[in-house]
Amino acid sequence: MSRQRKKRKPAAKPQRREQPDQGKSPAAPPPRRRGGATAHAILPAETLAAELKPEPQTRTEEKIPRWWTALAALAFGWALYYLAAYGGGFHPLVFTRGEWFADIQARAARSQQADPLAKGRRLYRRYCAVCHGMDGAGQPGQFPPLAGSEWVLAPGTERLVRLVLGGLQGTITVKGLPYFNAMLPWRDQLNDEEIAAVLTFIRRNPAWGHNASAVTPEQAARLRQETAGRIEYWTPEELEKIPADR
Question: Cα 206 from chain centroid?
Fold first, then answer.
């Protein structure tokens, strides 16, 4: 009886492990998304939208610097002071809403700017107050007072006009006290209207209790012409020779 030969299975060939090439880095694993899903995986629309939604950022509040607050408060306070000092109380004489410029000009002609005492006060403050003072009290021993002065309140105005035009040199007695100093001539600095305005102010200033007659520009012009050739300062003795009522 013939023996049946068993069939042998062929031996499995050993698998060769491929060695990575030297100089080449191993292949990187496929990119993965949140939750472990690969980039090639198809995600539901809701999941994809949730993953792409930006994360909320916390916003820090910006504080205003203290120096800026202090500066704004200072500017506001200065604006209130300016309105209180120069706003005229929003009086209709100063400010009328919706008024035409012609109306303002017409009103200004009747205001204090047209007052001869106001013009004389401005001239006195600019040229005379530095020596005689805004109160007209003068300075003891140097500059004689004008308030209550017999020279200022004389019935006539010729002495004063000549004194202002040509200046004064020597000792002058005012209200019983002697004053020795020099007063510069104002012939070239003041015109006839300005001389009349400043002398009218000192003769009629109610703050000093004065109410003498006014000086006109015509009087100043006449005496300017009569004394055009004089270059010497006037002395008190020369002026006293002129009648006080002229």
Answer: 33
Q: Is the dihedral of CA 66, 69, 73, 78 positive or negative?
A: positive
Query: How far is it, in rounded angstroms, from Cα 197 to Cα 216?
Result: 8
Inter-residue contact 196 to 165 (CB < 8 Å): no
Task: With beta carbons less than 8 A apart as the criterion, state whether 137 and 147 touch.
Answer: yes
Asked if 196 and 217 touch (Cβ cutoff 8 Å), the reply is: yes
First vs last Cα of the chain: how many Å apart?
Answer: 186
**Spatial distance between the Cα atoms of 242 and 246, rounded to a whole number of angstroms:** 7
Angstrom distance (rounded) from CA 244 to CA 246: 6
Question: How far is the C-alpha of 160 from the C-alpha of 167, rounded, in Å?
Answer: 10
* Helix, coil or strand: residue 172: strand
Tens-place pLDDT, residues 10-38: 555 555 555 555 555 555 555 555 555 45
pTM for this one? 0.55
For CA atoms 147, 202, 162, 213, give the dihedral sign: negative
In the CATH scheme, what architecture does the domain 115-240 have? Orthogonal Bundle (1.10)
Would you list the domain boundaries of the chain? 115-240
| Most confident region among 59-68, 89-98, 106-115 by mean pLDDT | 59-68
Question: Does residue 136 contact residue 203 with C-beta atoms inside 8 Å?
Answer: no
Q: Per-residue pLDDT tens for 156-215?
A: 999 999 999 999 999 999 999 999 989 999 999 999 999 999 999 999 999 999 999 999
